[in-house]
Each structure stands twice: as C-alpha cells, then as structure tokens.
Amino acid sequence: LSQNSDIVIIGCGAGGGTAAQFARKTDRKSSITVFEKGKYPQYSKCGLPYTISGTIPKMNDLIEFSEEWFKNANINLSLGTTVEKINVDNRIVFAKKGNVVIEKSFGSLIICSGAKPSYPPIRNLEQDGRLVNGVHVVRTIDDAETISSHIKRGGNTTIVGAGLIGLEMADSLHRKGMNVTVVEALPQILLNTLDEDMSKIVHAAVSEKVVILTNHLASKIETKNGKISQVFIKNAETGEEQSINTNLLILATGTKPEISLAKNTGCKIGKTGGIIVDEKSETSVKNIYAAGDCTEYLDFVTKKPIPIGLGSIAVRQAIAAGINAAGGDYKLPEGVLQTRTSEFFGLEIAAVGPATDLLEGMSVVSGKFNGSSLPDYFPGGKPISLKVTVDEKTGRILSAQAVGDNAAQRINTFACAVLGGIVVETFRKLETAYAPPIAPTLDVVTLVCDIVSKKLNRKR
Amino acid sequence: LSQNSDIVIIGCGAGGGTAAQFARKTDRKSSITVFEKGKYPQYSKCGLPYTISGTIPKMNDLIEFSEEWFKNANINLSLGTTVEKINVDNRIVFAKKGNVVIEKSFGSLIICSGAKPSYPPIRNLEQDGRLVNGVHVVRTIDDAETISSHIKRGGNTTIVGAGLIGLEMADSLHRKGMNVTVVEALPQILLNTLDEDMSKIVHAAVSEKVVILTNHLASKIETKNGKISQVFIKNAETGEEQSINTNLLILATGTKPEISLAKNTGCKIGKTGGIIVDEKSETSVKNIYAAGDCTEYLDFVTKKPIPIGLGSIAVRQAIAAGINAAGGDYKLPEGVLQTRTSEFFGLEIAAVGPATDLLEGMSVVSGKFNGSSLPDYFPGGKPISLKVTVDEKTGRILSAQAVGDNAAQRINTFACAVLGGIVVETFRKLETAYAPPIAPTLDVVTLVCDIVSKKLNRKR
C-alpha cells in the first residue's frame, strides 16, 4: 500500500487545480485524479464580481485551466463528482457522479474542499431550504450568472457585509446602474483588512458613490410574488428599524471552512474551524494534505492560527501540497503574511500583516503618512496613504496598510520586509527608485517609516 | 574654533538644499549658509526633460524650495555666489558674489558641488571656448530654456549618448515633433542601467519611434551661419561615415565629479574621481561632508567604489550630511543599491544592483521571465520582463532589472531584498498581493525567482 503513488485531489478550485499541476510537474508518471463537484474546471472565484460588472466579458473567461488542459497534462479530472467518504485505513476515496459510485485508492490525498458561505441571522432568508429568489452569495459562476439576470438599471440592491467582496460587488452593481446600499453590522468597513483609521479613508471615498450603513444589521426580508422586495435594516445602537426596497440582496458575510469530509479522516481541526496544516501543507494524518479555504495555518507575525481565506494563499499552499504529495520537498514560510489587495470605485487598497487590533499582547508603534505618488512639481500625482506598525522592542516591521496609488506593489515591498524580519531603521533608508514621472526621490514607503522611527526613538 | 557650530554648504542642488533642510531640522539655532553659483534655489535637474516636452508646464515649476522657503527656515541662501577657496586650517570659505568677496567661517562644511558634463571627442564642438550654437547639455534650467528655443516641429535633432538622459530627451523631443536620431558609441543602449539582454527589449520599443545607432560615434560637426547644420557619424566597426542634418545636438554622455574646490581641502579623492565619503557622508577631513554627484561611495553588493550619479542617492547622502554636520547621528547603509528607474515612449524601466557585467569575480546565476501585470483572464494586462541575479553560493539576491508595467515599484521590492540580504529561496515564496484587476496570484516578481531557484538547484 505504501508503494501506491496515486494522488487523489478533492476539489478543483484554485487550490485543487494548482495542486494537480504541481503534482504533475513533480512526478511525470503517477496517476493524478481530481474530483470536482461543480461543473467547471479550475476558474477564478475572485474574478466573479468583474464578470458581473462586465469588465470581464464572458463568464467562461474565468476558466484558467480547461478540461482539455487537464487531459493534456494527463490528469484525470472528474467534474460533477461528489466525494462522499474517505477510508483512511484502506486509503480509498468513494465518490459519486450521478448514480455511478467511484472507488479510487490513493497513496496521497489532497483536500481542497474550500469553504461554504456563512449566512447572517436574517429572518425569512430561506424558503424550502433555499435562499429566497433574489438573494445571493457570490461563490460560483452559477451565482454570478443568476445575479446578472437580476440586475436592472435603476434597480435597488442591498449588500450585507462591507468586506472586500461586499465592496467589490458594490462597485460592480453600481457600474451596472443599480442603487447600492451596503449594510455592515460592525462599526467599520473592511474589518481585519484595514485598521479603522485607514478604513475611514475608504469609507469616505466609497460613500460618495453608494450608501454605506455601518453599525446596521439586516434583520428580515419580505417577498412579493416569491421574490425579495424589501430588506429590513436595524441600527445596532438605537434599535431603530427601516425598510429598503430591494430587488437583489447580496450576502457577503464571510465563509466557514468546508470540513465535513475531512472531519471523518482524523485530520485535526483547529480552533478557527479549519483543517490544521503544516509548512508542507500536510495535515495531522501522514500523506493527507490540504490547501485553501478549508484550512487554517499560522499567521507569520503572531504565530497564532488563522483561517485561510485568500486565493493567493490557497495557491501557495496548493503548490506545497502538490509537490510534497508527489514526493518532492517544498516548505512554505512559517506562517502567512496575508498580503491582500483590492480595488473599488477607483481606489486601490492593500495590506500585509495582521490588523493592529489583532496584535494583542505585543507592544507596537504605528505611524501614518499621506503623500503623493509623484514629486510635487510633476502633474498627475495621486494620493497615497500608508500606515506601518512595528514591534516596539525590536523595531521589526509587522504590518503595513496602504490606500491609493499602486497600493499593492508598495505593500509587496513591505511584505518582503515582514518576511525578511527587516527593522524599520533599515527600511527607512531603503533606496527606492526615483524618476519624476514615476516616483518622488523619497517614496511614501520610506517617509512613513521615518515617522515610525521617530515615534520609536521617543519611546526608547 | 571647535565651538563654532556654523554650517556652510557649497551648492544648492538636490544635495545642498536637502543637506540644509536636514541640518536645520537637527539644529534649530545654528547659522546655516548655502552658496549657490547659479541663479535658482533647489530645483529638480531630473525634471528638465519634462519641461522641454511640456509635460511640466513651466520651468519654474521645477523649483522645489524657493528663496522664501529658505528664508523662512532661517537658512542664508546666497545665489549667484561662487566659492573660490576653502581654508581648512582656519575653517573659512571665501566666496564671490559679483565683485563682493564673502568670508564665512564654519564649524562644519558640506560640499555639494555636483558634476560637470563630460564631452565626447567631437571635432568643432566648441567655438571660442563655448559649445557651438545649437549644441547643448541638459544640466540646468538655462540649458532647458535654450534647448526649447531651438525646437521646431519637423526639425532634426541628434542625441549623443543612449543612457537614461539621452533616451528621456529622445522622448521629449519626439513629442515636440522633431525627427530624433540617438547615437551611441557602445554596442548597447542603457549600459550599466540594464544588461544587454534587457536593454534589447527597450531598444526594440524605442526604435519604433526614433532612430538608434549603436556602435556609432559622433565624429565632427559642421556649422552654417554660426549654427550647427550637420553632424558626422562614424560606424565604430566599419569606419564608415555619414552625415545627418541636425538643428539641435544634445550631448548626454555623462558627467565628471566637480572636485576642483575639494581637491585643495585635503579631502581624499577616490579612484572614480569623486570625493570619498563614509556612511555618515563625511569626507576624509573631519567635519567636512560631501554629498551627491561630486562623491564616490561603495556599491552595496560589490563593496567597490562607484561614482554617485543618481538624485535619489544625492538626497540620501545629503540627509546624512545635514544631520551629522548639525551634530546628529545618522548612518547610511554600507553601500548604495543604485535603485534606478525611468520612462520613455510609454515604457517603464527600473533596476537595482550592479549590471551583471560588473559582478566580476563573483559566481552568479541569473534568470529571466516575461509575464503580465494581470491574470490572463482580466483585460488590460501589460507585459513585464524581469531579470534577477543571485550569488551562486549563498542564493542572495544581488540585482534585479525590470522593463514594463510598474517596473519601479516591483524593483523596490527587490531593493528591499538586496538590502535585507534575502535569499532567492525565501523571496520566491513571498506572498504578493493578489486581486484580478491588480496583479496575478503569483506575481512576476516571484515567478522569475522560481526560474533562478531551479537553475541554482541544478548547479548545486
């Protein structure tokens, strides 16, 4: 049995698809089988809001690797196939495609079962065990297609949740001519993505285009002819309730790891509800790997477990899982940086490292700087706001958050600093690239560090 | 005399002006005097090509800090004032403004005398000790004004030197409707900025807009009515000569450190012809500092001395000089990264670390990758080519070169890696920011490192 080099992968999202590719790159001969319950091969879930807005012309454009691609790579991809059971002792996966039961033995297993949407407690949300007509999550191509069919110029849409997906959808539906209201139960938008002070810059900009109600809960929906017509919104502080006409309700309130299969394999489940994986993306069960939204891993800075919710991390875990499952040797860093970015209403945001609130128990110093992407004398400079947080004792850069021009690439430089354990006193002297049409002599990435460094020196 | 805290600064370019500011920030009370031989206070020399193209509307826009600004900062700025002699023993500077001789004693001196253009051996270049009418360098606002007065749509301009300034000028004059020919004596454009293979990408793109003649020397000019009319171009390989009608000849063939004053102070001059400075920007003479184009400093990677020729480095040295001259304590890293960037004909280029040819005696491994700024499925992705070179023994990243989208900010991430001594095996696992409209799940900055890493492993 230990001679069995067959690899079975559950799920063909970004995680499963990538794992299959890297397993194949590592081992040209072994049998590789991917079971995917949906009808599409690997496609970009993150791209869904942009197909809804029309920026990406066709839904099918999202497919990154076609069935043919998998075939040519000699990977057995079985779509419309649900894995029902994993027998760990005998190393067999039982799956079902229509009425056909498939038994597949494996040497290594990679679980990329993803996550399922987590619904907020809204009354009348479901009817006959399904979301009411006009109420949607944004998880699949089918979701995006149905949402698109509900869009009408001048119509009203309510989005529950002001995280990245909520705001991306707000932009998309606004572009399609809908009146958008975003309802957020918490006092700030983009919790865990940005600190409150940084989120306020985004809040102000987004509020110019759509209505944002923070501290508000969607409490109840009403239907008319079997379709959503109203959503009731409750002020979390005053308890006041109002109703909004709504043709389309988008739920963007996060996800829960999909671990129903993994649970029965003996793979340890962590505090956050995800499958625990190590630097090799291996679970607590030898030769069973997992990657993506169904897992939890350590945060690089706090070394505490966090649920994985970013496609960029899923892909990196899947590279490790695929290589290691195929007999290679690939280790990820001891924790994830959670480098993240998005863009809506023309504003780019990005961040790396935990939100400052999550650095409990650490003594930290933060500094902020609002600057321009270009020298003052050069026309067309765009605003950029940066916040950097460092460890008070060592000066090590722990996190950075940016709103504005080239936020993502600027944050990548900080990601390198976090990963490399670089201290702020070194980073502030970084020689950044300068040319009048491109960046000022001293880029905002170092100017913000001057401020942090001064605060740090005053404390010492 | 040692009690004298007066600071005298020679030159009010980016170096001198910045040094004055940081001296003032460090010491609110001391007397600070800046002698500048030109008629303008601190302005951006790097911005000159963009005033010529009209992108920056007015020449005066280039002035970053006005006379009034210096006055308000309680800095004595004396324009039109030439320093004639430095008496190191008695710590006195002798300057001349018109016929008035100024004697100014100092406790600390900062030399920011810049560089002077270095002319190629072209016959008839000068008449009566001055460049022929229609022949120009691009060093000062006056140069830019005169060049602008010679521009005519449909006219012919020849640029000698295909370095950064030569190509920036080619773009500017092309925008103004001139027919541009760039003549470069060497076999490649952008020597020392990019390796030959990377420069070829730029060469191909620029050649679509203007004529580039590499391996060609400008040998002679002819005049008509006291103005340039022809330039003779010689093929360095075949010796063949041709003449080009030229209304305007731009010399962009580099500079030499201006050290005539420093020479007599006892400050040590290095092999490259610049004033030797240390991490504090102090010269070999105590309390005499120097910054910018008149200096040489170590390259961070090779630890060999190199002449300083970038405004970004001048400003950083000046920060150190200003703070230290005023009694503070500020040290630069042990060498410069030479992070550099520019943009012409819509193409952004950037690099950090020495050109690979300059890594003599080191065993290095390089890798290249051509990718896109966005995921394949997202419209509008732009090409980006990257080259990364690492030390074969340690895997440390030594240099990176980029041509294409967001080259500069991507190179800043590598600059952080070079400064932090990060190895390619770590960097390739960097979690970069991903979102469909912004960057792919795996950015080119890590994909190129995968290639380098594989090459490295094959060699080991």
Structure description:
The structure is a homodimer of 460-residue chains. With 460 residues, chain A is an alpha/beta fold. Chain A has 11 helices and 28 strands. The first copy, chain A, has a 5-stranded parallel sheet. In chain A, strands 11-18-12-13-14 form a 5-stranded parallel sheet. In chain A, strands 24-25-28-27-26 form a 5-stranded antiparallel sheet, with helices on both faces. Chain A is globular and about 65 Å long. At the A-B interface, helix 8, strand 24, strand 25 and helix 9 of A face helix 8, strand 24, strand 25 and helix 9 of B.
Residue share in helix of chain A: 10-25%
Could you give the count of β-strands of chain A? 28
What percent of residues of chain A are in strands?
25-35%
Largest protein interface, residues of each chain: A-B, 67 and 67 residues
Low-confidence stretches of chain A at least 5 residues in length (pLDDT < 50)? none
> Largest beta sheet of chain A: what is the strand line-up?
3-2-1-7-21
The helix tally of chain A amounts to: 11
State the end-to-end CA separation of chain A: 61 Å
Biggest sheet layout of chain A: 5 strands, parallel
Regarding quaternary structure, how should these chains be classified? homodimer
Structural class of chain A: alpha/beta
